[in-house]
Amino acid sequence: MSGSDLVTLSGVPGSPYTRKMLAVLRYRRIPYRLILASHGAAGLPQPKVSLLPTFYFADAAGEMQAVTDSTPIIRRLEGMFAGRSARPSNPALALIDAIFEDYGDEWLTKAMFHYRWHFEADIARAAAVLPAWRMSQTSDAELKAAGEMISGRQIPRLRYVGSNEKTWDLIEASYVRYLDAMEAHLRSHRFLLGARPGAGDFGVYGQLTQLACFDPTPMALTLERAPRVYAWTTGMEDQTGLEPTDADWFDPAALPATVKALLAEVGRVYAPLLLANARAVQAGLDEVQVEIDGRPWVQQPFPYQAKCLMWLREEYAALDAPNRATADAALKDTGLEVLFR
Ligand SMILES: N[C@@H](CCC(=O)N[C@@H](CS)C(=O)NCC(=O)O)C(=O)O
After folding, report:
1. Is the model's pLDDT at 4 over the cut of 80?
2. From 1.10.10.10, 3.60.21.10, 3.10.20.30, 3.40.30.10, which CATH number describes the 3-80 domain?
3. Domain ranges of the chain
4. What's the pLDDT at 133?
5. Using CA of residue 264, residue 265, residue 266, residue 270, what is the dihedral sign?
6. What is the mean pLDDT of residues 19-26?
7. Which atom of ligand 1 is nearest to the CA of 51?
8. The whole model's pTM is what?
């Protein structure tokens, strides 16, 4: 198989979204090549906004285009390759899958970024290892300088994800509750929505590759409270051997209590943020101020997350009446209903 037959992406192991997409490609048995690179790949086009992972797809004229953003790329890959779908066939369940994916990508990433760049031990590990993924054949002094440059750039970015003295406790408490809820779910089930993984599993997995398996503070927490979550994360990396069938998805009209509990955790923290952020973006405010879980949350507005809410609403609006009734019943009393009112 020549390089041009392979789905090509660039990314690095320390990027949760790169890991998310590698796991999707493997699970779906889509032949790919990963170019280990943090600043685009030589000879390939640059994306408009430089984000990892970057995929390179040929357009209608056969011209290579650089494409970013894992959520729409998962949907694009669904159209390009048949079988082993990462999206539930039932539209009501697919909406729930999209909610979990968004929670992983947009909320758990706050925990990931917060733990990595807030605690000394985590900063030290990231500063030592992140540059080595890119430039290990270099002197210790150069590697150390590169680590200092990365941490010097990332620590001030904590404010973008909303990690500040008002929100630290909330971010950490929500990670612990998520771990407990997922550990409880994994006692009886293999993936979030049944015996096969969906985009939601891959979104959560991407963040957990760092939280559970790399950054020392959240990794210790995970191992202590949630050994199944740790094991699940390492297993998600390669699900090439799973043979999924349509019967492996949960019936969205009869979701296990542990899924409802996970959804309630998403509704508790992420739903109020999504709504307040969208209002702030629409009003052109320079700060989102909202109460989450009885505590104040302040962060700068994030236009991308207003788009996330719009996508979820579009998916909800596209449901026919019976599927909408199923989705409404599944989301009832989870705190997520407010997203679709
Ligand atoms: N919504 C995007 C987010 C991608 C993203 O934020 N990637 C991070 C790395 S994990 C990034 O490239 N940040 C900019 C940088 O590191 O310069 C996706 O799902 O792909």
Report:
1. no
2. 3.40.30.10
3. 3-80, 91-116+162-238+250-340
4. 86
5. positive
6. 98
7. 12
8. 0.97
